[in-house]
Every structure is written in C-alpha cells, then in structure tokens.
Amino acid sequence: MESIDLLVLRSAHDWLLAGERVLLATVARTWGSSPRPVGSMMALRGDGRVVGSVSGGCIEDDLIHRYTTAYRGEGMPSSPPQVERYGVSADEAHRFGLPCGGTLELILEFDPSLASLGQLLQLLEDGNLVRRELNLQSGQVQLTTSVAPEPFQFDGKMMGNPLGPGYRLLLIGAGVLAEYLATMALFNGFKVAVCDPRPEYMDGWDVAGVEKIVGMPDDVVRAFTPDLRSCIVGLSHDPKLDDLALLEALRSPAFYIGVIGSRRNNQLRRERLIEHFGETEASLQRLHGPIGIYIGSKTPAEIAVSVMAEILAAKNGITLPSAVDVSAAKRALEAQD
After folding, report:
1. 87-103 as b/e, with b when 16 or more CB fall inside 10 Å?
2. Which of 4, 100, 113, 120 is exposed most, by the fewest CB atoms within 10 A?
3. CB 117 within 8 A of CB 12
4. Which Pfam families does this chain map to (predicted)?
C-alpha cells in the first residue's frame, strides 16, 4: 500500500490524463485544533469522487457540493489557485465538524498541470525528497530535490510542500511476527522488505507487497542504504543475524533501530556489542530493545501492534512516557509482587 500523498497525486494525475476536471486541495495553515496537519492533500474529481482528506469529512462534503456535478454545484472554475478558510467562527467550526476553536486554511488548485504531476510522481518513485513550490498568483509549480527534509511553508503568496521519499522498513528474520508487522507497516504507507538467509524460513514466508531478500543481514542493510525515513527491526532471535545487522544500522541515519528479545537477552546483546565490537553505552542509545510499548501483549499480532506504535511515535517525533516503556513497566509490575 503506497503512502496517502502518492495515492492523492497519482489519482489526480490519472484523472487529468483521462480528461476529468480535478481539484487538488492542500491544508496550508491551521489555528487551534485541526483534524489534519499542514501539507495534507486531497484530490476531488469533477463527479464528486474523493481521494485523501483535509478534515474529518464535513469540509470535503462542502467542496463536493460547491465544485462538482454530484450535487449540481458551481463546478470547478478555470482560475489560479484560491485560498479558502473554514471555521472562522464557533458556529462555522461546529458546522464543519472542526474541533473546538479549530480553523484551517486550504489552497485550492483547479486542474493542476498534468506534466508537472507526472514529473513529481517520477521523482518520488525514484526515491527523491521533493519540494513542490506553488505560486498562487500564476498557478506555476516548481519542483526541486533536496537531501534533507524542510518544513511546509506558506506566506500567502507561495506554498512550499515537502514530499517523499516514502518511509521504509527492513525486517531481519522471516517469522510470524514479521508477517504481522509487515502487514501493519504496509497499512501505514511504509515500503517493506524482509531479509533472511535461512531458506526454511524464507520459502514459506509470503506477504503481498513485501520485497523478499535472501542474504546475510549486514550485507543487506548496507545495500538498503538506510536514510532518515528508514527503520530496521531485528526479529530473527539469532544473534549471528541480528547483531551484525544492527551494527550496520547504527552507522546509518535510520530514525528507528530495534530488536526483539527479553530484557536479559537485550542486556547480553548490549554487553556483546560493547565488548567485542567497540560500541559504547552512548552509541547504543539509539537501539530500541525490548521493542514496542507495554500493552501486556503476548501473541505475535499484539506484539506487532506494540512495535508499530513505537515506530510511529519515533516517526512522528513523539517521546513516549516511561510508563509505556517495556522494561520500566515490567520492573514496576515486579515491584508490586
């Protein structure tokens, strides 16, 4: 499953290619509580079909009523981009289902350039980080690639929206837990690969949409070239596979690196990496283990939920409270016994 941004852009491109009228809406600014962050996009086809979201649904309904034939609306104008603000008053916020005090501003692009969307999609599919800059007066779009993500910007005249590359997850170990975690990662828009040199594990492992890589994990991690939107998770329960892969991962800028195992096994792993591979307590600060958040999980499916939650928190820059740390939670429970 591809990311929602790619799905919106691809839908808009394909609709335009088929000769349909298209509205591309982007959340430009928010005040107070808002259902969707800045940069969120939706594509609206002339007959009322919608892909993506800019709110909880009521604003989408208003745009459908106004700009499509679904409810005999005004139709889409042939004009430069427009700015539309919702939720200025408490009554309007309530009408459009915005949280208390919520106000958001949308940029509406009518029939965006088909050629520009095609170029943007190709750049994103090639793994580039792209900044899409829109001039609201002329409607002209400029695409630039960069090596580091930049924040969304809007000054009333120009919009700069950073897009891609997609988030990636590399799983070490083709077991049952990897199947559940891969499925959840795909659902959250990650591109997923699984690596295992053991044919008895890999031959029977099959999750649609996941790349299967047979090879030694440390070599695979190097070839994977992890970036700021990559995460690596060791699930093999075999130190010969997990440890070397983790060492390679720790040399990368991956935003999340974790490994399965009990508190004792993770402590022994840290001691091995320090004693035999020159790591330090400081260099191992980025290594998550035991992985996941504490929800009392026992089954592979529940463990995958807890691991995915921790990955998403890291992706979103959220520092989790100590109460959900697996080691801290288990120590607290032991102290109660």
Report:
1. beeeeebeebbbeeebb
2. 100
3. yes
4. XdhC_C, XdhC_CoxI
- Highest mean pLDDT out of 29-43, 59-73, 199-213: 199-213
Closest to 310 in 3D by CA, of 188, 163, 200: 188
At 126, list the tokens: 């090639």
pLDDT per residue as tens digits for the range 153-207: 999 999 999 998 778 999 999 999 999 999 999 999 899 999 999 999 999 898 9
Reference 86, options 67, 63, 116, 70; nearest CA is 63
Residue that is written with structure tokens 């096994």 in the block: 265
Q: Which of 219, 235, 224 is nearest to 290 (CA)?
A: 235
Give the strand pairing for 153-154 and 158-163: antiparallel
The strand order across the sheet containing 82-86 reads 50-52, 41-45, 22-31, 103-110, 82-86
Sequence letter at residue 269: R
Q: How big is the CA angle at 264 (ends 258 and 265), to the nearest 5 degrees?
A: 50
Strand partners, 131: 144, 162
d(CA 138, CA 110): 12
264, 268, 273, 276 alpha-carbon torsion, rounded to 10°: 180
User: What is the span of the domain harbouring residue 110?
Assistant: 4-117
Among residues 23, 6, 34, 8, the alpha carbon closest in space to that of 105 is found at 34
Whole-number Å distance between alpha carbons of 314 and 254: 11
Claim to verify: residue 330 and residue 188 sit in the same structural domain = yes
Boundary residue ending a domain (87, 117, 147): 117
